[in-house]
Amino acid sequence: MSSRGGGGFRWEMRPGGMLVQMRSADPEAASSPHVRVRVTCGSSRYEVSVPAQATFGELKKLLATETGLQPAEQRLLHRGKERGNSEFLDACGVKDRSKLVLTEDPSSLERRYIAMRRNAKIQSTRRAIFTMSIEVNKLADQVAAIEKSISDGNKVPEIQITTLIELLMRQAVKLDSIPTEGDTSLQKNVQAKKIQNCVETLDVLKITNSRLQIVVVTSKWESF
To answer: InterPro entries in the record, alphabetically (predicted)?
Structure first.
């Protein structure tokens, strides 16, 4: 796809969707040789082979696989000047073994920093919920033990039930103070539901337990 713009220039759409100035239909241009450019990015060094008549935008796509930076996150400088995506390498004087400097776009750095902080916060929340889930599971095991004892007709001291309810409520308060987002909200809700079920079970067991009679086991001894 091509079109003619102001100033007599012709433009073409590259496969990647980039609009660049159309090259002349010169057979020698069509067989443009490759050049190896040396790109410095911080303490890292890259050497990339690219057609001499490629654009800086196309070079960025090649560098994306090397650096992990998306083309929109890259800024390419040649001879101390930032080059636009539609500029051609050879037109800007890029030759074999030319040196370029790659930096990350400041706005991209800021987004990356925000994403890192958010991920760190999520990981911290996951650890907090996981640690709490261990404690909740221990309390749930105690609830199950009391439930079995009462179902077998054995009365348990009421203080055991009330203490267990208090411990579960403390966990509920701690859980409620943990800020969550994303999938951690679901994990938090799972633990909150487990605590609620345990408390409701203990409330029912408390009533059942109060109706049980303490069984006193005695032994009769015969004299011989």
So the answer is: BAG_chaperone_regulator, BAG_dom_sf, BAG_domain, Ubiquitin-like_dom, Ubiquitin-like_domsf
Closest to 81 (Cα-Cα) out of 100, 98, 95: 100
pTM > 0.70: no
Question: 98 burial class (0-12, 13-18, 19+ CB within 10 angstroms)?
Answer: middle
Structure-token match 């890192």, residue found: 116
- Backbone dihedral angles phi then psi of residue 103, each to the nearest 5 degrees: -125, 160
| Dist. CA 33–CA 205, nearest whole Å | 84
CATH fourth-level superfamily of 121-210: BAG domain (1.20.58.120)
- Model confidence over 190-215: pLDDT tens digits? 999 999 999 999 999 999 999 987 65
- The whole-angstrom separation of Cα 191 and Cα 203 is 19
CATH code at 2-21+31-104: 3.10.20.90
